[in-house]
Hints:
Helix 2 (30-59) runs antiparallel to helix 10 (292-327), helix 15 packs antiparallel against helix 21 (689-727) and helix 15 crosses helix 23 (742-775). The strands form three sheets. Strands 1, 2, 3, 4, 5, 6, 7, 8, 9, 10 and 11 form an eleven-stranded mixed beta sheet that branches. Helix content is 49%, strand content 16%. By secondary structure, the protein is α+β, with helices and mostly antiparallel strands. The chain is elongated, with a radius of gyration of 34 Å.
Amino acid sequence: MTESSTAPLLSVTALRQDVRFAGRMLAKSPLFTTIVVLTLAIGIGLNTAVFAAVDALMLRPLPGVRNSNELMQLYRTAPGNARFNSSSIPHFFDLRNRTKGVFSGVAAWSFQPVNITADGPPRTVMAEMVSANFFSVLGVNALRGRFFTPDEDVGAGAHPVAVLSYGAWKSLFASDPNVVGRTIPVNSQSMTIIGVAPEGFNGALPIVQPELWVPIMQVAQIKPGNGSDLENRGNNYNTVIARLAPGISVEQARARLTAVDAELLKEFPNDYEGSGTNLVRQDDAGIHPMFRGAQFGLSAVVMVVVAILLIIACVNVANLFLARARDRAREMAIRLALGARRAALVRQLLIESLLFSLVSGVAGLLVAVWAIRIANSVSVPMSITMKPDITLSPMVLGFAFGVTVLTGMLFGIAPALQSTSPALIPALKGEAPAGESRSRTSKGLVVAQMALSIVLLVCAALFLVNLRSATTLDKGFDGENLLIADVDPGLQGYARPRAREFYRTVLERLRANPMVRDVAIISDVPLGPSNSDRGVSIPGYVPAKNEGMSISYTSASAGYFKTMGIGLRAGREFVEQDDSTAAQVIVVNQRFADRFWPGQSAIGKTVRTGERDYSIVGVVPTGKYQRLGEDPTAYMYFAQNQRFQTTMSFVIRTKGDPMALAPTLRREIAALDPNLPVSSIRTMDKHLGWALMPARVAGTALGVFGLLGLLLASVGMYGVMAYSVAQRTREIGIRMAIGATASHVITLIMRQGLTLVLVGTAIGLAGAIAASRLLASVLYGSDAINPATFVAVPLVLIAVAAVATFVPARRAALVDPAITLRAE
Length: 824
């Protein structure tokens, strides 16, 4: 096949011929093709899978809604850099009523667990309390029945109604076509199902799958004892979402919200001092705006790591193509001698590379499907059904195609240029090429391979060290042999006296069980997804400007600190006598005490919150409460008998396997009320899966990427060194013919090879140090500049490089020089 010097360079006929020739080359060497395809498929597939995850969590518009780009989330701000606070129901009313000119609709929603009895035993599921216009604001139509109407909104007093999610309709009611109109018990209240939401719609937070929606007007039924939420501006637990009115810009909406904030401050100065409204585009919110920065940081890290993995794969394949170019040097020389243009040959070789890359891209999609299936199967240790719904969306497929084409160009361009510039006379005679440019290319491959591998493996190792640090981090309590179970008798309509008696009876029975060491109840188990905070004031303490005075808290029973293995720094813990008839008491952590009374004893000091004074009776060490990576945070504990809540979690320290007690716990609760569900029975280790999830996902994923990188680096360095040694066969034969020993030849080659490796190591370490500083913001529990990592990784790779250099060097040194010279 020749190319005329006057033939059009980009004619359709020429391209068709090149594609056919590339296809024949693909089929001609099945082993070579298999190695190339598998190497590239790993890199392309993992890049596609990671981008699919980023797309699902951060880039994809809200599914199932109309024009999500018009939707805005509205958050309250507060002093102390609190920019994403929830809103109360009255505050939502104000936003809805005072912004009619800039928003076509304003809705509110919040998650709320409920007890439901469908076609089976009672169970606790996740519901969403929403304003009646929630579905219309999002632009969603019912699959069956209808959604809420204005007369079912707050205060209308209509009969309790509910809308089922598509998933609940299938799983709880077996897709019953007559489900609309059925009455079901929800929290011991009869509710009529009026509609079913369409498939794929999960609300304003798509990764969470609620089972049903109920109007906010039913707050008294859904949250027994919380009917005052309709008027209480201090109960902030709703997320507000709004749709821009036609022709209104985001800036105009912000201006109106600023004016509304000023109006509310004037009318309710005690509730809105230092408060404001933060407007966030729905499409920019991700899982939650609070985590947006961390999401971007972690996503960028993982994307860079898999990109480096792909580049290493490209370097390996480029090396394979360079090695093959040596075998095709005579072919290229003949074609050039017959008048073929170099540009036409480069075009043909690039088409070959692109064809290899496209085949690899198809195989990479299979790798991506496998990786996505694994990612979607990861379960979150929560009662809420969470599913990221990672898919090969059109955007992801477009990304995969772009990466595939770029990959073909990356590994194809250097071999194509090298192959089409042979020394004609030696190449026509069939002699081995020995050009300086090829030597430089080979050396550059060694350096690049080593540098990229160092960066990749250091990043992976840092995340693995970070994962180990996270699991061993001092969390402020002893998690061994702890069993946790969530119960809410209030959802079954228990009044406070009955709920108190329920908890007292269960605690007594569990304490009498020989398998139990200690038992207590708490409203928020540390390092779980839920958190509560309250504004406090300290007599005699003047807060700094914009100092946040809202402190996280929980309610705990007597014996909680002993059960959790939390020692006391001062004072005492709660006792049964700390009830509504006794003085109001509180226990704080050391950070709380140091913040407000530095250098003093906090015992006996007063904390004012909710217009009541509490006396500090105990100080405990500062632990971890919301996130493993959080800075030391002030925290306070109320006595459960004084700030009673019906939603509590049992924490039980057992004498053996905690899960062995689970059947006993269920029996004890069922004996008191067979219709009361016990949800999320789990060990503390499983509970911590929520807090450890980011570290585990990142550590596991990057650990796998690191191992793949090490494998590719090993194969690639061996290939580069083998190619380099093969180019020097004649030189080695001459050296041995004039007296050089095999050991001298091996030493020479290894010294030259390891010199390149050390140069690559130095460059890679510099890059790894820079990368580790960028990683510091997403690592916790360990220093980002981990000395052991920066020593171990280079040593491992240098050892691999030494073996990769020694094997071809020894093989070349053992060849008979006479045979070598005769072959040349």
